[in-house]
Amino acid sequence: MTSPGSGKHWRPYQMVASTPLSLHRVHHLHRRAGFGANWSELQRDMEAGPDATVDRILGVAELVKSFDVDDSNAEPKVLTTSATDFDSLQQLIGDAAVSSGDINRLKAWWFYRILYSGDPLTERMTLMWHNHFATSNLKVANVAMMKRQNDLLRRHAMGKFGDLLRAVVKDAAMMAWLDAKANRKGKPNENLARELMELFTLGVGHYSETDVKEVARALTGWTVRGGDFEQVAAYHDDGTKQVLGEQGDFDGDDVLAILLKQKPLARRIAVRLCEAFFGEDVITDDALGELASGLRERDLDIGWAVETILRSEAFFADDNIGNRVLDPIQFMVGPLRSLEMLDPPPSTLLLVEWSTKLGQDLFYPPNVFGWPGGRSWLTTRTMIGRANFVSTLCRGDLHRPARPLGIEALALKHGYSSEATQANFASELLFGHQGQAGNVEMMLRSTAAHLG
Amino acid sequence: MMKTNRREFLKDSSAVSLGAFPSLICRGTSAAEDPRSSHEGKILVVIQMSGGNDGINTVVPFADEGYAQYRSKLRLPTERLLKLNDSVALHPSMRAAADLIEDGRLAIVQGVGYPNPSRSHDTSMAIWHSAEIGDEDTLRFHGWLGTAMDAMQQSSQERGNSDPDMVLLGDESQPLAIQSRRSTAVTLSNLTDLRLSHPIPRSTDQAAAAPPSESGNSLDRFVAQTMRDATDTASGLEHSISEMTHLATTGGASYPSTMLGNRMQTISTLIKSGFSTPVYYAIQSGYDTHSAQLPTHSRLLREFSDAIKAFLNDLDSSELSDQVCVLGFSEFGRRVAENGSGGTDHGTAGPVFVASRQIRPGLIGSMPSLQDLSGGDLRMNVDFRSVYHEVTTNWLGVRNVSTLSPSQIPLNLFQV
């Protein structure tokens, strides 16, 4: 594993007296790098310490990646029995969703993965890339294609950005979403060309309108046939193009190679990652710049950047804890995991309905920009929706048959018998610290419950 | 009578002072700083008449000899028509629409279409939705309303506004018209999406409502404020809904109990509740009348007209009607000649309805002749993009919407 960054902005976190590994920090790590943890997991990682815990989180991601990427036929020898069980079950659910043609079942499949995957970090990253390469089934209208794109995002989630980019822009769902099929010599369609530069790689201000037109010409001939990417020479404009100062008879692959060399790209990836792992006003411009140059030096290795972030002092700093608006899925899944409400399982189709109500309809990002995130998750409608979700969860109505939350029993199970210690237990379990008042329903409707 | 009832309602509602009623339900203090939510901003409500409305039997050219010639079974008896002048009249079931024209609240733009019309529902609807003319394969990704909202997004973001730019009322998936590059559109099935299933206990409520402590950072304050606003909206809506129910049962703002009526009532409730959303969208389906058209068409036009009138009257009583404009359109009109099944097939141009207190009322443009057809279809007189252009610039106040050609002849839809 590549060693994490050692620049002045990304010093590794050290367990010293001034910054002890409190429950608060372990709780924080699980919320940001995953979807929350239960009491036993929190206790286990308190003992293990931050290095070992981050090792474990990244190690699982590495394991899954290695058996996922290298050879799809390979036996997943390194995985535990429960992980292989998980994998065969999720495959079953995913395949059934595809053959049903019902996108809600595909959303439920993803919820299943988020709830039960032993590698929550990769699910978090997949969600992040779904937002970056925002593709909506509203236009694609094909469950199989949406699943394939999702699997692709997961496979490359922690790898080299170049591999991810090359795979995504030739993905059938993406091609349909951005009208790449209609891009022909002499009648170029600029949709993919523009978003490729504006959203996927460089960002506004780092290319010109001429670049958009020229890239669109270079991309002519890329199309989808029978659900697969195909390059049709007859549709391709093989004339000379001028892209970002370079000149040649470029095709799409040439353009990707040019884009992957551009300096602003690394910064854009760094910004994305910092959005995912940090709250408001934590990462300075200098720190972003340092992460971006680290990415450039390492061939845009996403896994390296994630590791650098998760091991950093900045990540564990007090001003990075509890200062980020939870997205709807985190808001929903966090309590389900913490409160051990996963066995028997909640209805994933109901979770799908709720996430839509709360503004995060998987596979239907609102537009090419994805979900704006942050404060925009919280609106009048979604605040009311969140309060109602909490009621539904506490009354057990996410489960069929209904299975009301038994916080006393859970507290007892973990050795807290008096009423006062039970309240503290709930507060620590849900927030990583004591002091949240009221019953669980009130706690989950409080201001703090929306931040993490 | 209605006013008395309102006063009675207000008397019962201890938290409310009479003068503050229209803004009673406004959320919190931040909402008051928002020009749109304090109702200075204009609101557009679009009703999509899906399926291709038979414009000829809606705004009837009864004096045109072609009408009797092409419509033997479907010809509406002249004596029952609601005459607008000596050649054009409304369908008899559009009494409410005729009333709106009479008191200056409805304009009908005649013969609206686009060049080389497509008779495909999908293609033609996509053209109306996107304001881009082309064939089926033409890229259409953003809608005309989405584009208009994108053009005004800057100010919306600067205000830190959290209400959606566009709301679809109904169960349908969001139409292309409200798809956008960066604006927000949500679908609300009904108001229960905005109601608390279990009230927040008083103690939590107070904790949320307490002034933020000095140590609280801006994000904590933001969350607390949003929560407070949401709680206010939820309880405000409870009041509003109970008032609505109260008035409905005593003859106040009564809506027809049709699907469109319900949707318009929900939109009105949202507007009255202080939502800063500038665009609402509702879909009325069923206009694809290939056979036995008369009864179906009559029901649809009544539902359409009654819902608009009830909506405008309702907003009138809350003194909000100056801010609201309703636009009704269909993807095409129908063939001039009726078919053999007592119905009509897909045609071209048709009427567009624009209802508002600020409208230049009555008929706008001229009815296409039924004796000068193009392949059996009406020739359009007005490009629909001129209507869009006036609605976006002169009503919503959005400039430079690139997809809408400013070179169209002005219709002067709105009174200056």
TrEMBL record, chain A:
It comes from the Bacteria. This is DUF1800 domain-containing protein.
